[in-house]
Amino acid sequence: MPRRSHLLAVLLLLGAPVMAKANDMPEEWPDSIRVVLDNTAPLKASRGRRLPLYLWPAAVEETLTDSRAEALVRELQRRGIGLISRWDHSDMAASLARALPVARAQKKLGEPISIDASRCLYSFFDGDRNTAHIDEAGTPFWDTSFGKPDMGCPFALHHRREPIRQRIDAFAEAYAKEGLSPGFVFADWEIDGPIPWNEAWSASKRCRRCRQQIPDIDNFLAFQKTLVDLRADLQRDVYAEPLRRRFPNVLVGNYGVYPGDGFRYWYDYFEREEPWYPGIRDQRALYRHWADEFTRSGYTFAMPVVYTWSRMWRWYEYANDDFRWFRPMLLAATNAAQHTPASAPVIAFVHWHTTAPPDPPDPEVKQMSARAYQELLWHMLLRGVDTFFLWCPAEESPQEIRLLHAVWAEAQRYGDFLDRGVPVSYDVPDKPGTVISGLLWNQRLLIRRTDFTGEAAPVTLRIHGAEITVHRADGCQELTLTGDRPSQPGELR
């Protein structure tokens, strides 16, 4: 389907990017900011009005003067990177003191005011025994299968809505009084609230209140939909609506919430793989049936998660190690890009180092190569992902930032395609072979071919009634469709 007008980020070849010198910025910045500046360089092609690249370390953790905030926002702007402020209700005054100078600078420089609201949403399950499950004898109990000791009854959370909503309202009001409108607000709200995985279904079948609320509780899909609908309602009520009411144009969303085809192609670190889940079997992978959380949430952007989850390694028996990672990761990215409405940007969390690695380490699990990861990023963009959000532990930051920013910087050369192009392929091969993605704009095609075998033969695609022959090549190929023949290296027949 057609994609949106703020597309973003992809590929510099595997050569190391030019690094910013340590003395390019005379100010003394915190280590997290310093690592961003030291491992990126100013863009050579304009970002235009596209969304910035987001990096977990590029966040404000100290109070800056207005002039220093402007200097930092400007320096990151040169690199195409957005600066994030974090809202923390536990000390709102200090949080605002850190965030407002940055917001003023972002408004002045035409950058989206970018906010992490995660801390404000924790926790619905706060340990109050009134939120516990209740068995037939009236005894409270918890579901401990998520690693959080106080996961309880999803139908006992109504009294938690107002205090959490007040936190979001308070920050929104403070910004509105300053004439500041957040442009991008995200949350990393995961292990809290209604979640249907692990032992949640068993716990709810034991719970007197859950059985009253879910008449068809013995049907897992009915149970899942009920919990996911409730989870979406909570997010809309306390988070999305308070922001959208004051700031109608805000992009607001949450980690892992996005439209899809009804299945989920990844498991979070706290989620168990259970053989009885309804879903699609693909070798040893089980892609779970997943109820729609996005539609009822009120969110205005999609946030898929495209990580190298370690368990993916054993899902497939491909001889090509990289394709073990590439297939499920591209499935997850394609799922979001293909099904998200054109009005909602796709902002994908990404991570290259093996995520949630086995403990103790498993020497058989091979790290995804840097080349395959960068190729994946490119295909994500050429399928409609608008920008990336890097998450990684601090010790991984330098290499993670270099790989991702190299892709992002090179992608800006193709701004017209990123802004206006329509994806031409969502195919994900079920075995190592050739992967093709592309954007069509104004009778021009920006296309990329990645091969996971030694196959070098041309591949023919049918696009809008025309046959396009794509030859093997390094990097992207740009074809101009004039008359009945495009320019080389592709051919139109």
Which structural category fits the helices and strands? alpha/beta
Instruction: Compute the CA-based radius of gyration.
Output: 23 Å
Assign the CATH topology.
TIM Barrel
Q: Briefly, what CATH class?
A: Alpha Beta
Quaternary organization: single chain
Q: What is the fold's blueprint, element by element?
A:
Layout: H1 31-38, E1 54-55, H2 66-78, E2 84-86, H3 92-109, E3 113-116, H4 118-121, E4 133-134, E5 140-141, H5 158-177, E6 182-187, H6 200-206, H7 208-213, H8 220-246, E7 251-254, E8 263-264, E9 279-282, E10 285-289, H9 294-297, E11 305-309, H10 321-339, E12 347-355, H11 370-381, E13 387-390, H12 397-411, H13 415-420, E14 422-423, E15 434-441, E16 444-451, E17 459-463, E18 466-470, E19 476-482, E20 485-486, E21 491-492
Parallel strand pairs: 1-13, 2-3, 3-6, 6-7, 11-12, 12-13
Antiparallel strand pairs: 4-5, 8-10, 9-10, 14-15, 15-16, 16-19, 17-18, 18-21, 19-20
Structure notes:
The protein has 493 residues and is of the alpha/beta class. It has a single domain, classed as TIM Barrel, CATH 3.20.20. It is 32% helix and 18% strand. It contains 13 helices and 21 strands. Helix 5 runs parallel beside helix 8 and helix 10 packs parallel to helix 11. The model is unreliable at 1-26 and 483-493 (pLDDT under 50).
Question: What is this entry, summarized?
Answer:
This protein has one domain: Alpha-Beta Barrel (TIM Barrel), CATH 3.20.20. The protein has 13 helices and 21 strands. The longest helix has 27 residues.
